[in-house]
Amino acid sequence: MSVDQVRAPCRGDAEEASPRSATVPHGAGTPGYRDVPVPRWDPDAPADVDEAEAFLRLFFAENGRGGALRTRLASVRTEIARTGTYTHTAEELVFGARVAWRNSSRCVGRLYWRSLRVLDRRHVHDADGIHTQVVAHLRAATNAGSVRPTTSIFPPARPGRPHIRIWNEQLIRYAGHRRADGSVLGDPRYAEFTSAVTAMGWRGRGTAFDVLPLVIDTPAEGPRLFRLPEDAVAEVPIIHPDHAWFADLGLRWHVVPVISHMRLTIGGVHYPCAPFNGWYMGTEIGARNLGDADRYNLLPLVAERLGLDTSQEATLWRDRALVELNVAVLHSFAAHRARISDHHTETERFCAHIDQEARAGRPVPADWTWIVPPLSGSATPVFHRYYYEADLRPNFYLDPDAHELALRGPSAPAAPAADVPGRVKTVLPLS
Q1: Has residue 427 got a pLDDT over 90?
Q2: Among 114, 265, 329, 384, whose CB has the most other CB atoms within 10 angstroms?
Q3: φ and ψ at 61, to 5 degrees?
Q4: Distance of alpha carbon 286 from alpha carbon 328, whole angstroms
Q5: Which stretches within 19-116 are classed as H helix?
Q6: pTM of this prediction?
Q7: Residue 46 exposed, middle or buried by CB count within 10 Å (0-12, 13-18, 19+)
Q8: Nearest-angstrom CA–CA distance, 334 and 272
Q9: Mean pLDDT (whole number) for 416-426
Q10: Residue 397 region, left (φ>0) first, then alpha (ψ -120 to 50), else beta?
Q11: Residue 274, number of CB atoms within 10 A of its CB
Q12: Beta strand 280-281 with 276-277: parallel, antiparallel or unpaired?
C-alpha cells in the first residue's frame, strides 16, 4: 500500500483538537506564529508614532548611530503627519525583519536571527512581478539543499488602501483532494483551499503530493493563480535506513518551508506580503505533517508495515511508529544533502540563544507549547524551563482573515475571468 491508497479521515469543519494543530508548523529557522491575544490590525489607521519612535530608538541603539536619531525621528513624525505612514530605509528594513525573527516566541531556531537574508521587493506591485520574485526566493533559499533563511518584503500597506497579499499559508503546500466518500487524498488541512483553487481553474494530477498553485492578490488585479515551476520546488523522497519497504509508500516532502500569509510589522508599518523561511526541524514533518491524525495520518500504516501490535494503546505502537517515521525523514534529507535539524540539536541551540541574548541584556520571549518539540519533549533541554512570554516588536502576526483565506479560500470563489481587474485571472499551465 502507498500513501496514494491511504484515505485520510475527513476532518470537516471541526476545530483541531490541540493548540499545536491549530496552526501549521513552521520551520526550525523560521519565525513562528503568534498566539492570542494578537493586537488587532486596523488597516485604515495611520502608523503609530510611538511604535515608530520605539523602533527607531532600538535601531539606532543597536547599530551605534545615536547622533542621527533626533533628525530621523523628526523626519518620520513629519511624514506620518503628512501621509499616515513613513518609508523605512534599506538598513531599517533589514534590521526590522531580523529583529522580528528574534522576537518570534514560537520559533526554536532563533540562534540564527542575524543570518536572515532580507530581499527588498518594495518596488514590485504587480502579480506577475511578485510571482517572479517568490520563485526566485524559493530557488535562492533552497541553495542546492543548504537552505538559507530568507525573507522577501513586498510593498507595505498604506492606511485606508487595499494591500497585496498571498493567500497560501506556505509557498509550497500539497493539495487535499476530497473524494466522493468524504475522505481526502493528500493533505486534509488544505481540502477546502484545494476546492477553492479548483473552482478558480486549477487542476491537479490527483496524487497525494500535488503542489498547490499560488493565489496572489493585488489591489489592481484581484486574486490570480500561478503555478510554481518544478525546478523551484525541491522535494525529498522519504526512505528508511533499515526498512526498504518505506520507499514503496511513495512519501515525499518539500525542502523549504516558506510561510507566506503572515504580516510583518516594523515600527508601526505593516507588510502583509513578506514570505519568509528557515529550514525544517525533522519533527515538523515526521511528527506533525505526516504523523498527525488530521494530516497524512501515517502512523497506522507505518505500524502495520512494522508488524506492531495495534490492538491496544498500551503496546505504544503509535510511539514506535512515530520514531521510525522521524528516523526516515532525517535519514532522507541527509541522503539528499538537504538541510534539516533534529529536535535534540535544535533545542540545545535554542538554550545557547537564550544565554547569548541574556549576555546582550535582552529577554527572549518563548511559547513553551511550541518550543518543546512534539517528540521526546522531556528528553530535550527546553522542557524543564519557564519562559518569558511577551509581544515584542517588530514581529510577525497572523491575522484572522489571512488565516481563513489560507485554509479555505474565499467563501464564494470568483469564477475564472481573464484580464478583468478585480476578478480571477488564471495563468496557465496550472496542472
Answers
A1: no
A2: 329
A3: -65, -45
A4: 8
A5: 49-62, 69-83, 90-102
A6: 0.89
A7: middle
A8: 34
A9: 32
A10: beta
A11: 29
A12: unpaired
Contacts of 175 (CB under 8 A, 6+ apart): 186, 187, 190, 194, 204, 210, 211, 212
DSSP state of 264: E
389 Cβ partners below 8 Å, 6+ apart? 105, 365, 366, 367
**Predicted confidence (pLDDT) per residue in 380-412, tens digit:** 999 999 999 889 999 999 999 999 999 999 864
Burial degree of 307 (CB within 10 A; 0-12, 13-18, 19+): exposed
| pLDDT over threshold 50, residue 126 | yes
DSSP 8-class letter at 315: G
> From CA 68, how far away is CA 77, in angstroms rounded?
15
Q: Is 243 exposed, middle or buried (0-12, 13-18, 19+ CB in 10 A)?
A: middle
**Looking at residue 40, what is its pLDDT?**
86
Segment 7-56, tens digit of pLDDT: 443 323 222 323 333 333 334 444 443 443 667 899 999 999 999 999 99
So which residues are the catalytic ones? 107, 110, 279, 284
One-letter identity of residue 113: W
Burial 54-86 (b: 16+ CB within 10 A, else e): ebbebbbeeeeeeeeeeebbeebeeebeeeebb
Q: Look at residues 142, 151, 153 and name the one whose alpha carbon lies nearest to residue 113.
A: 151
Contact 357, 99 (CB under 8 A): no
- Looking up cell 484515505 gives 7
Residue carrying C-alpha cell 483532494: 177
| Mean pLDDT, range 49-68, rounded to an integer | 94
Q: Report the SS3 class of residue 176.
A: strand
Instruction: Tell me the backbone φ, ψ of residue 188, rounded to 5 degrees.
Output: -60, -25
Following CA atoms 165, 21, 381, 145 in sequence, which dihedral angle do they give, to the nearest 10 degrees? -50
DSSP 211: B
